[in-house]
Amino acid sequence: MIRLQDVRRVFHQGRPDELVAVDGVNLRIEDAKVTVLRGPSGSGKTSLLALVGCMARPSSGRIHVGEREVTSLPEHFLTEVRRRTFGFVFQQFHLVRGLTALENVMLPAYPLGGSRKELVLRAQALLDRFGVGGRSRARADWLSGGEAQRVAIARALVNDPQVIVADEPTAHLDSKLSAGFMDLVAALRSEGRTVVIASHDPIVHESAIVDRVVAMRDGRIVSGTP
Amino acid sequence: MKRPHIPTWLERQRYLLDFTLSSLGRRKGKNLALASLYTLVVFGLSSVLMYTQALRGEALRVLEGAPDLVVQRMVAGRHDLIPADRVERLSRIRGVQEARGRLWGYYFDASAKANLTFLVPEKFWGKPGEVVIGEGVSRTRLAAPGDPFPVLASDGTVVVLKVRETIPSVSELVSTDLVLLSEPDFRRLFGVPQELFTDIALTVPNEKEVPTVANKIRAQIPDSRPITRAEIARTYEAILDWRSGLVVLVLAAALLSFGIVAWDKASGLSADERREIGILKAIGWDTSEVLAVKAWEGAVISLSAFLVGLLLAYVHVFVTPAPLLAPVLKGWSTLYPSFRLTPTLDPFLVSTLFLLTVVPYTVATVVPAWRAATTDPDAVMRS
Fold first, then answer.
1. Is A11's Cβ below 8 Å from some Cβ in B?
2. What domains are defined for chain B?
């Protein structure tokens, strides 16, 4: 369970261009469920997603991951929580150019050490699972949009995280690939993983596998609380 | 429940180094250009330092065998031959154990285009008509033991001597241009009368007495010039330091321009590199891990350039006859027959070069990465 209590995220605080991206949000994200943050562009979903995934600290308020209060953790410990608990899938996929698909999948595991052989096997198994095993030696810049996304999902899972956080994962996919993505989300959910997605794509938030849709506007939750 | 794997420092560094090497490979062009330029600077700088240091070592080795005090006669401010009766007079000065007249001089060998040093040793082991030659002389004149050794005497006649043997030496500089011969041959070749010597060498057993003895000589024989071993050493040092200083000054300009290029290349992160740092942070890398990768990157480039540059400089100075530096640093002695320097590598010199090159470069790569790496990992989500 991830709990957010009266969380605010303000950019350029105190300056003329101050922007309140997340404004007093209270939210509980339940384990092993699929939660979708829905809202128009600029509604604060990506900022909220970053806070949920411990990628950013709130300007005020508290966040609990499980029983642990994470807002006051020093950077090093917060990173430790982030990489052991969360896997991320980004809108632009953000694969490292020039590295192979396999190396991209292995990347989040490098700071964790461990046997290289095991890591290669684990990464290859994930690529196989998402149907891109044959492309493991291909450089990231040679992958198609659909392949890149699957590699990005494999990368998000390499450290076996409990929570998958995805930001507009279908923004660059056609309807068929988007539906395929939701099938993968269903598979992750059936493994007992928590999935949090920020998306304004109807294919995502109208999907039958989604447990809860939280609607946002102007940094606030307008429906779907708590 | 499965306990999380706690990575060892070594495991982590191995992965980071792996990633570093692949990063370097991905930006091959830029990194190779930088490393080559870097190698060139290290090569130039270490060549000069190694060369002057080796020359200094050679010079000191020469001085080890030099007499405590040498007395020359001065005429109108120029070195002139010294009367033989002064040997007796000088040996009577308190503190002097022994005085010995020496005969030596230079001979320009037009065929070899080299200056040779002719010297009558204290005890010449050959017979009159024979010479013992240094390795450099043997090389330039293609003269082996038993071969004739023709020399143009001061009266215009050609005197043909015979090579008895060549002298091997630890320091080629000491003996390379040397021709040892008997006193009668020397006097005949250079037309030096019996009652004159080139200079007089004194043995003064008590080192502290040397300056006092020198003062006494100046007072008793006003047209003499006593030269102590310490003075010769100082002159060598001054000349070498001045010459190497001159070259280092020229190199400093190169170093400065390299510094600017390196700083620009290393410190200015490309958009691609900044994006990559953002991704690494976003997928769970810590700031310290990103910095470690950048530090490794800087260290790999600078360390390999440093080692290659140092190795090339070593080959240039000690294996080849330093064709790029010899004309400047050896000065008049380029007229010597070629000689090889005794290879030495001073740890102090290596560590100074290391500190001057590797450390600043590595810092220059880490600082901008630190700026990029300390941004929030969610920046990548907003890009």
1. no
2. 9-62+235-382 (no CATH), 67-228 (2.40.40.20)
